[in-house]
Structures are given as structure tokens and as C-alpha cells.
């Protein structure tokens, strides 16, 4: 009887140990399932945000394509070596040569250049969600006779950009959408080693960028969600 009692106690202890192990396994399994459910929910939310971001990017690309088409159509009578419309880094660049816009050393836009800017302003009036940056560029030939407010190529590039910005706003573009800046000789598109290349560098670039408010909201939302 004593031996049987000892055996019984041993079996009971072994059974209790196994039940405890099963309980622990069940608890771990429940925790694993909860972790999996959470990871699945997080993945679903991330996929939804990614889809939203991809949609916003596609809409932004579509808007840039449509903007380029509108600008190209409006300026088709001027396009050639003196005026080019192109896309770069998700923006539309309207590059205008000095020959189209200005006489040498002048900051006053010639009549033909004024007409091109008037056509561009008409398009931009219909594109209220587009920001406009006007960049003046020069070659590396220094001023021979600095005078008044214009001492060097910095001044020339800035004053030309300001004059073009003024003409765009006079043409109906809201002033708060327009930024005028001068880059002087420091962002050339060709080496300043020939008259032809120097002429290429004497230009004004009007950079058109659709506002990215919705896209930035999504990015900010993703960033906030990732930090939680």
C-alpha cells in the first residue's frame, strides 16, 4: 500500500507538472496570437497609408504632366533655342534665353519676351495650386562699368528675376505664389568657354511646382504613426 501510495503521489505530481506546462503553453500561445493580430493590424494600416501615399504621388505626377502640357501649348509659338519647357525632379522648368528677354546688361524685358510672359501668366492664373520661382542666371563675364544699383552679376540676375516676377504678377499671378531669386554665374548649364556656351548660361528659369499640401500631410501622418 505504501508503495502504491508513493506511486500515486508521483503520478499526481507529474500530472500537475504537465498541467502547469500546458497552462503556460496555452498562455504563450494566446500571447503569440495577440502579437500576430497586432502585427497584422499594423501591417494593414501601413499598407493603407502606403496606398494613400502612392495615390497622392500619382496625382502629383499627373498634375505636373498636365501643367507641362498646358505651358507647352501656351508657349508653342515661342519654343526653340530661346525658350524650352521641360520636366525635372517633379517640377516644370521654363527656360528663357537672354536673347528672348533682355538686351545685353539690361533688366527691362523686350516686347517679345513680355508677350511670352503674358501667355505664361494666363496659364498660371488657371493653376492656383502652383508655386512659381523665377531664377536669373548669367555667364561669368564681369561687369565692365558697374553703376547705380547694379554692381555685378549677382545684381543683374536678381534684378532680372524681379522684373520677370513683376510682369507675371501684373499678368494676373498672385504675388504670394511668386519668388524672385538670382543665381549669378554659379549654376551654369555649359562651360563658359565659348560665346555659344556663354549665351546658354545667360538665361532665366521659371520653375513651376505644384503645391504638395496633401502629400506632406500624408508624409507627416506616416511619420507620426511610425513614432508611436
Automatic annotation (TrEMBL):
Superkingdom in the source lineage: Bacteria
Coiled coil: 22-70
Endpoints of the signal sequence: none
InterPro entries to which the protein is assigned, alphabetical: Bact_OuterMem_StrucFunc, OmpA-like, OmpA-like_sf
GO cellular component, one term: membrane
All residue ranges annotated as the OmpA-like domain in the record: 89-212
A family per Pfam: OmpA
Keyword terms of this UniProt record: Coiled coil, Membrane
Keyword Thylakoid tagged: no
The protein, known as: Cell envelope biogenesis protein OmpA
Organism expressing this protein natively: Hymenobacter perfusus
